[in-house]
Structure formats: structure tokens, C-alpha cells
Design brief:
heterodimer, A: alpha/beta, Rossmann fold, seven-stranded mixed β-sheet, three-stranded antiparallel β-sheet, 10 strands, 37% helix, 24% strand, globular, B: mainly alpha, 11 helices, binds adenosine-5'-triphosphate, MetI-like (chain B), transport (chain B)
């Protein structure tokens, strides 16, 4: 097993190959009582085509790190580059798609029209919009609900709609914050496989927050283990599993060994507290 | 189902009791006030009277201090059904005049209110410079300003419906601005961030997000604005020496001591206000339903 510490993975990458580069990045939220060190001294390189998972206990800064990459939060110190430019340029160039922890659908739009929103904003043609929407609603199993309003769908269905909305844009970089957290096991398996298919077929870069160790193992090429107070990376594990994955992989020894390593990294850190 | 039915029966009964109690109080008060006037007149002319006569006549005076509901109802019936609509004696004729300037003033006020709100929300300088004026404008008593507006506009040959509509506008833009500023700022933070990730420009932000978030607030304001517009139209008819409109009807009624006519005009303006607010409510339901917000 190939456990890299954050400094080792932070090799000076050929700029053409790296999608996200984070150097010594810290983020402090000023609160009334005491400042919150949400991110402390983060070093991380994500290469094009990587599937990177952030895993760690609640409050360790996974969402915050994702938001910094998306230019929704500004670092207090340190450097970050996304697609070779600043996060703000990457955002202005619509380089990434973001799936929030909550569905964030507009209640006054139908599911179809919600999915059309990002494509309307980037003025894509109506025919292209409809083709994309049909394709990805089918993928998340909502083709029969395209004319429903969000409140007519369950929480899990709403979350799937928000995933379809992000996929419709086919961004180079997909940032997903616990996208499958609200789903049942079967749907989750299905969407894991679909996401892997898209990733394999398109060579997109995925950054994925999860609380589930098996999910992280199944999906990722790299697993970033994080820890709270202050939020930091304790370990970056490169997966020895093949890039092409199937659900049956979950019964192999290599899968269990990797899961155990992640579990240990999470537990070790707990003892330090 | 059973419980629901008995509940409606129950509330219906309660409403009936309250209305009945009000009517009884009204008739007793009318007896007291009108009776006293009758007694005073009779005593001044030194005629003999009995209480029975007073009770019998108290509800039939031509210009009673307090008309009773059935007198007002008869007046309403006579001035609506028994007069051609084009006649100055028809209450509907006056109602339509007031309705026209109310609607025109309401439309102008709503548009002005929305435009000011958009300016305030999108521009920091406008927020600082315009908001105090918006608030100050409403601290000026409308009764004081209405004649000024009418006279000033009259001197530049603007007469008729427009000065009245301007006063309605003056009263109705304010609630629209206040509600709309709040509504435009009420957009969900997560939705705003979502739009940011799409690099939406401020026009797209407005038409695809803010405008919709503001709608519930807008409709609440429009209900206040339309009743304010009605008040404005009636107030504007008072000092203008207007020949038509519910305000003119109120004024001429009080000039000639026609209390029944005054009350009929008052009831009519209340009905008109109720009708206008109901219409805004229906428009709200229709629009919210069309955008799927009504469950
Ligand atoms: N806007 C904010 N202002 C102040 N503190 C914040 C803010 N956002 C997050 N924090 C704090 O930063 C820390 C990291 O939060 P973050 O949301 O990144 O955690 P997380 O790892 O995503 O947790 P979870 O798994 O529960 O989603 C937490 O201690 C949180 O209280
Ligand atoms: Mg989170």
C-alpha cells in the first residue's frame, strides 16, 4: 500500500497535469468568541483525471476546502491554483460544477427546468439542453419526474436531481459535497457505478466528500484523510486498486486492506486528540 | 370529515351571533342618537311626544345623525339599481371614477415602487441616498399634500384623472418599495452561491433568482398598496372640488347633511377595497400556482 504524506504528494507538478494545487493554505473563520481554524496548513495536489475523496469526522473542514477550491470561500493565507489559474478565474470560466450538501433546487422551477438553469446561464442551445437533461435524468432515474416540482420529490430524489443538474454542464472538474449522503444503499450503489462510468469515459477530475469508507475506497484514486481542530490533512492514501472498478471489487482483499488503512488513519488521529 | 363539518357549522354560527350582536348595538345606538335629536326638535317647537312615537320615528328620519343598516341598504339599492350608470346620481358612476384613478395610481405606484427597490438593492449609493427620501415622503400627511399636488399639476394644465392617480401613486409606491427591497434581498444564500458557481451575471441573478424570491413579498405589499391607492384616490377627490368619485360623493353628502348618502358611499368604498384586495389575492394564487409553489 502506498501511503503518501501530504508533502510527498505535493511534488512540483507539471502545470499541464495538475488540476488543483494547494500550498500551505490556512483558513480562519473569525467568530465572536474564538477564531475557528477551519483549515490549517493544507498541502494537496490533485491531478487531471484523479478521483479524490475527502474523508474525516464532521467539522474537519471538508466542505470548507471544497468551497475554497470553488472560490466560495477565501483562504486566510497560502496559495491555491485551480486549472492553472486562481479559483476566481476558474469560476468565471465555468471550469467546475458543484454539488452542494443540500439539493438547492429552485422551488419555482420543475426538475427539467432546474437542470436547464446552468445551461441557460451559459446560453447553450435549447436542443442541446434537452438532450443533456434527458440523458442525465435517465441516469439518475428521474426521467418520469422531469415535469414535477421539487416539493413533489423525496429528499433523495431532489439530491439526485441536483446531481443531474451538475452533470448536464459536463464540467472538467466536478466538486461534490456528500452527494449520496441522503440516498438508500441500492440507489447509492447504482449512482456510484454511474459516476465511475462517466469519470472513466470522460477523464474528468472529481473531488468528492464522503463519510463512507467503502464509498471512498470504491470510487477514489486518492483518499484524503482529514482531522478537525484545526482542520488538517493527516494522510493522503493513493489507491492500489485498478482504475476500472466494479461493485464486486468490494469483496476483494485489496479493498478490505485499503478500507482498514483508512479506518486506522482516522482512528490514529482520534487518539492524538 | 364529521369534525370538519361540525367545525364549519360552529364558526358559521359564531359569525352569525357576532353580526347579530353588532346589528343590535347599531340599532340601539341609532335609537339613542336619532331619538335625542327628535326629542330636541319636538321640544323646541313645544309639541307633545311619547316614547312610542320616538321609537317609531327614530329609524325614518331623512338626515339622521346615525343611519341604520336598512336605510343604507335602501339608499344603496336606489342609487345603484334605480339610476342609469351614466347618471351623476348613480353610486356606480362615482365608484367607477374612483376605481379608474385607483387602478391607474396603483399601476404607476407599483412600477415606481419596484424600480426604486431594484435601484436600492443593486446600487449602494442609491441605497444610501434614496431610502431616507422614500421614508420621509411618507411622513408628510397626505391631506396636506394632496391639494398642493392638484393645484401644481392644474397650473401646468394637467387635470382630470392624472392628479388623482398621482396621489394614489404617492401612497402606494411606499409599501411596494419596502416589501420589494426585503424580497429581493431574501434570496436563499445557497441559491445565490449556486448562481455564483455558474458565473451568472447580475441580470441573470435578478431574472432567474431574485425576482422569484421577491414575489411572495411583492404580493403582500401589493395588497397594502392597492388599499392605499384607494384611500389616495378618495382623499384626492375631496379638495379638488371634483364632480365625481366616491370622495366627491362623501364631500357633497356632508355638505348637505345627507348622512345616509355618506354612509352608502362609505360602505361602497369598503366593498371596493375588499374587492380590490381580493383581486390581488386571486392574482397571487394564480401566479404562485403556475410556478408550482402552491401545494
Ligand atoms: N461560515 C462559517 N463561519 C464560521 N465558522 C464556520 C463557517 N463554515 C464552517 N465553519 C466552521 O469550520 C469548521 C469546518 O466546517 P466544514 O463545514 O468545512 O466541516 P465538514 O468537514 O464539511 O463537516 P460535515 O462533515 O459535518 O459536513 C467547523 O468547525 C465549522 O464550525
Ligand atoms: Mg460538510
Amino acid at each position: 500500500m502506498n501511503a503518501l504524506n501530504p508533502d510527498v504528494i505535493n511534488r512540483p507538478a507539471a502545470s499541464g497535469r495538475s488540476m488543483v494545487e494547494v500550498n500551505n493554505l490556512s483558513l480562519i473563520f473569525e467568530a465572536n468568541d474564538a477564531p475557528v481554524h477551519a483549515l490549517s496548513e493544507i498541502n494537496l495536489t490533485i491531478h487531471k483525471g484523479d478521483f479524490v475523496s475527502f474523508i474525516g469526522p464532521s467539522g474537519c473542514g471538508k466542505t470548507t476546502l471544497l468551497r475554497v477550491i470553488a472560490d466560495l470561500e477565501q483562504a486566510t493565507s497560502g496559495e491555491i491554483k485551480v486549472g492553472g489559474t486562481s479559483p476566481s478565474d476558474a469560476r468565471l470560466n465555468r471550469m467546475y460544477g458543484y454539488v452542494f450538501q443540500a439539493p438547492a433546487l429552485f422551488p419555482w422551477r420543475t426538475i427539467r427546468s432546474n437542470c436547464a438553469l446552468p445551461m441557460e446561464i451559459s446560453s447553450q442551445s435549447k436542443t442541446h439542453q434537452h438532450a443533456q437533461i434527458d440523458k442525465y435524468l435517465q441516469m439518475v432515474g428521474l426521467q418520469d419526474f422531469h415535469n414535477k416540482f421539487p416539493w413533489q420529490l423525496s429528499g433523495g430524489m431532489q439530491q439526485r436531481a441536483s446531481i443531474a443538474r451538475a452533470l448536464c454542464l459536463e464540467p472538467e472538474l466536478l466538486l461534490m459535497d456528500e452527494p449520496f449522503g441522503a440516498l438508500d444503499e441500492i440507489t447509492r450503489d447504482h449512482l456510484n457505478i454511474e459516476l465511475l462510468k462517466i469519470w472513466e469515459a470522460t477523464g474528468k477530475t472529481l473531488v468528492f466528500v464522503t463519510h463512507s469508507i467503502p464509498e471512498a475506497v470504491l470510487l477514489s484514486t486518492h483518499i484524503v484523510v482529514m482531522s478537525p481542530r484545526p482542520g488538517r490533512i493527516v494522510k493522503v492514501i493513493e489507491s492500489p486498486l485498478p482504475r476500472h472498478k466494479t461493485l464486486s471489487l468490494r469483496d476483494t482483499d485489496a479493498f478490505h486492506a485499503l478500507a482498514a488503512e483508512i479506518r486506522q488513519a482516522l482512528a490514529e488521529d482520534h487518539q492524538l486528540d | 370529515m364529521q369534525r370538519f363539518k361540525s367545525l364549519t357549522q360552529h364558526t358559521g354560527f359564531a359569525v352569525a351571533v357576532v353580526i347579530l350582536a353588532l346589528l343590535i348595538v347599531w340599532y340601539l345606538a341609532a335609537l339613542w342618537m336619532n331619538g335625542q335629536q327628535l326629542i330636541m326638535t319636538l321640544e323646541r317647537t313645544q309639541q307633545p311626544w311619547t316614547y312610542l312615537e320616538i321609537v317609531r320615528n327614530a329609524y325614518g328620519i331623512a338626515r339622521p345623525p346615525l343611519p341604520v343598516p336598512h336605510q343604507i341598504a335602501v339608499e344603496l339599492y336606489n342609487s345603484i339599481v334605480n339610476q342609469p350608470i351614466s347618471s351623476r346620481r348613480s353610486l356606480l358612476y362615482h365608484t367607477i371614477i374612483t376605481l379608474n384613478s385607483t387602478l391607474l395610481g396603483f399601476a404607476m405606484g407599483s412600477i415606481l415602487g419596484i424600480l426604486i427597490a431594484v435601484g436600492i438593492v443593486h446600487n449602494r449609493t442609491l441605497n444610501a441616498s434614496l431610502m431616507p427620501w422614500v421614508i420621509a415622503s411618507q411622513t408628510v400627511p397626505i391631506l396636506a399634500i394632496a391639494p398642493i399636488i392638484v393645484v401644481v399639476l392644474g397650473s401646468i394644465n394637467i387635470t382630470g384623472i392624472l392628479p388623482k392617480a398621482m396621489i394614489s401613486m404617492y401612497l402606494s409606491f411606499f409599501p411596494v418599495t419596502i416589501g420589494m427591497v426585503k424580497g429581493l434581498r431574501s434570496a436563499d444564500k445557497l441559491h445565490m452561491e449556486l448562481m455564483m458557481t455558474y458565473n451568472a451575471n447580475s441580470q441573470q441573478m435578478f431574472w432567474k433568482l431574485r425576482w422569484f424570491s421577491a414575489q411572495p413579498y411583492l404580493f403582500a405589499s401589493l395588497k397594502i398598496a392597492i388599499s392605499a391607492a384607494l384611500v389616495g384616490a378618495i382623499v384626492a377627490e375631496l379638495p379638488t372640488g371634483a364632480q365625481g368619485g366616491l370622495g366627491a360623493r362623501l364631500l357633497s353628502g356632508s355638505y348637505y347633511g345627507q348622512t345616509i348618502q355618506i354612509w352608502a358611499a362609505l360602505i361602497m368604498s369598503a366593498l371596493l377595497g375588499w374587492f380590490l384586495i381580493t383581486m390581488v389575492g386571486l392574482a397571487e394564487r394564480w401566479i404562485l400556482k403556475r410556478r408550482g409553489a402552491v401545494q
